[in-house]
Amino acid sequence: MIRACLAGALMLTTLLVAGEVRAQDAEPPTAPPRTLHWNAGRDDKSRNDEKRTDETRKHGEQRPFVYATDPSTPLPGEATIEMAMQRASGVSATRPLPSSVAAYGMVYGVTASYGITRWLAPFVTGLAGQRADESNAPSATAQAGLRLQLTQPSARFRLGITGAWARELDGAQGGYARVSATYDIDRVRLLGNAHVEKVFAPGRDSVDLMAFGGVSVRTTDMLRLGAEYVAQDLEDRFEPEEAEGGVRHYAGPVASVELAQGALWITGGPAFGINRQSQPLIGRLSMLASF
């Protein structure tokens, strides 16, 4: 009888000790529930590399694309200078796409911008073109406008608007507006631009429409590689008279190098005409410096 009581007491003690140990190991009732994270296509290295690049960048304006506009603007109190050379696309309008009257070969440009606030930056651009015909005569012109960054610079989705007055190399004047948007997914940046302009000159379209699309992938801390697409003179699809020769489509690779914590961007690439109205090959090379 005594042995049976001792055995029962020993068994009860063992059960109580085991229960106490399990209670200490278990999460308290007030502990927050565990969340499962789905990291499809992502790893810790890619996320950490992208975070490190954003943290070490000391300047606001970025230039990962050749022809399309990134929504970024200079930081408050920061100035930028961009120098560019480009092969003309053979149309009348002086466009962000390599530009100017059909007889022009190369176009050279310098753009200065200043960040008044985080979201507002005025800019001025000077352009010089060299005619490719027998006259070989140079010509020069200018543009001036404002860029607005409507979202936080660090946001994944960023939106910007540009508006400007422009004088063309052949003397015609007008204005344009552009909406720019990007979305970042780890190392990948997706971009879209919609561009509308009006030139006040006889024989020109009532309005000119352009669209840009692109993707850029950060391959290292300094190098981005991607592709870009440009559709020019989209209005000619809806007008009976094609004042500028019809819609033109271009596509090509783009490479950009970011140096000195974002103080210097070197961006360039060719674009190949993919329809009959387009020139077979155009291209642009630019260098952006922030101070």
CATH class label: Mainly Beta
The gyration radius over C-alpha positions equals 29 Å
User: Low-confidence parts, pLDDT < 50 over ≥5 residues?
Assistant: 1-6, 20-27, 34-42, 98-103
- The SSE order reads HHEEEEEEEEEEEE
What is the residue-averaged pLDDT?
80
Helix/strand class: mainly beta
Major beta-sheet overview: 12 strands, antiparallel, barrel
Number of domains: 1
Molecular structure report:
Strand 6 and strand 7 form a beta hairpin. The protein has a single domain (59-290), classed as Beta Barrel (Porin), CATH 2.40.160. A 12-stranded antiparallel barrel has the order 1-2-3-4-5-6-7-8-9-10-11-12. With 291 residues, the chain is mainly beta. The radius of gyration is 29 Å and the shape is globular. Mean pLDDT is 80; it is low at 1-6, 20-27, 34-42 and 98-103. 13% of the residues lie in helices and 46% in strands. The longest helix has 24 residues, at 2-25. The protein has helices spanning 2-25, 44-56; strands at residues 79-87, 104-114, 120-131, 138-149, 157-167, 173-185, 188-200, 208-218, 223-232, 248-259, 264-273, 281-290.
